[in-house]
Specification:
Layout: H1 3-6, H2 9-24, H3 32-42, H4 46-53, H5 58-68, H6 85-100, H7 108-117, H8 122-129, H9 134-146, E1 168-171, E2 186-189, E3 192-198, H10 213-230, E4 238-245, H11 251-261, E5 268-273, E6 283-290
Parallel strand pairs: 4-5
Antiparallel strand pairs: 1-2, 2-3, 3-6, 4-6
């Protein structure tokens, strides 16, 4: 199941609000400060209840975040939601925390706890100033659970956020790191599967593989292979790929390894150099395949 689909309705609303906050501050990506503002602006939900139980003045907390948050000089966050490295780490922690608690969905409480656990960045300092720490949020959350307080509802099957488009099915693979944001790892439309761009994240560490460029290429191709197989297709059914390189001079090294995965009747391909890729990746590959 995609990470975005795991969020409760309120958690999704908080992230979309964070996107709006970041854009208004003319930042290029959502940071932890925007995630916290998204939670605070909801004014409801389990995270808000926990803050109230801890005696936190949420209005003062919001004011401190706004007064400290940096104003950017860019055009704001693009339509495609993106996150800073620290914000990505927070969302991954929230995902892991929900799993440890055997929760099927990621709620605002998991995001709040992950923010409190994050030891870097401006948000960490502000939360500490308001006496919000993992040592206090964790027990408060467990107390709510012990008292039988209702957890946040999952996104309704018929909601606008989750209603499937006719003839379109979201697909994913548990063998590669989950998507972070409102996009699917892959989409099936009719007899075709459209794979989102894949980068060289290690399934074990959820971080980019370290080492030479060739290691990153092999991880990208391994991730793409796993995604296609788990979506009911395979590398031998790919009809088109698009390759994004941060440095076009690395094309020969990429091409040599790429050829190992498509040794017969390789698919159509486009290759472009780009200014930058997510997480500092040197390579990203997307694909279209027959189901």
């Amino acid at each position: 199941m995609e990470l975005w689909q795991r969020f409760t309705q309120r958690a999704r609303r908080s992230i979309l609000t964070a996107h709006s906050e970041s854009s208004e501050m003319r930042q290029d990506a959502i940071g932890t400060e925007h995630l916290l503002l998204g939670l605070l602006r909801l004014g409801a939900g389990t995270a808000h209840g926990i803050l109230q139980d801890l005696g936190v003045d949420t209005s003062a907390l919001e004011a401190d975040v706004r007064s400290t948050a940096e104003q950017g000089s860019g055009e704001g966050v693009p339509d495609q939601i993106s996150f800073t490295l620290t914000a990505q780490r927070v969302l991954q922690t929230a995902y892991a925390t929900a799993g440890e608690m055997a929760d099927q969905h990621i709620g605002t409480e998991h995001i709040l706890l992950a923010l409190a656990q994050e030891g870097e960045g401006m948000t960490h300092g502000i939360l500490r100033q308001h006496n919000v720490s993992a040592d206090r949020v964790g027990p408060a959350l467990r107390k709510l659970r012990d008292e039988g307080e209702p957890v946040e509802p999952a996104a309704a099957q018929g909601s606008d956020l989750q209603r499937p488009r006719t003839g379109i099915e979201a697909l994913s693979s548990d063998r590669i790191p989950p998507a972070v944001g409102p996009y699917s790892q892959a989409i099936r439309a009719g007899d075709l599967i459209f794979c989102s761009g894949v980068i060289g994240l290690s399934p074990e560490t959820k971080k980019l593989v370290e080492g030479p460029f060739e290691d990153e290429v092999r991880q990208v191709m391994s991730n793409l292979k796993a995604l296609l197989e788990d979506c009911g297709s395979g590398l031998n059914r790919v009809v088109k790929t698009t390759v994004f390189l941060a440095d076009i001079e690395q094309f020969p090294a990429f091409n040599e390894i790429y050829a190992e995965y498509f040794d017969e009747a390789p698919p159509a391909r486009s290759t472009v150099q780009v200014a930058a890729l997510p997480l500092g990746a040197r390579l990203e590959v997307e694909a279209i395949a027959i189901a």
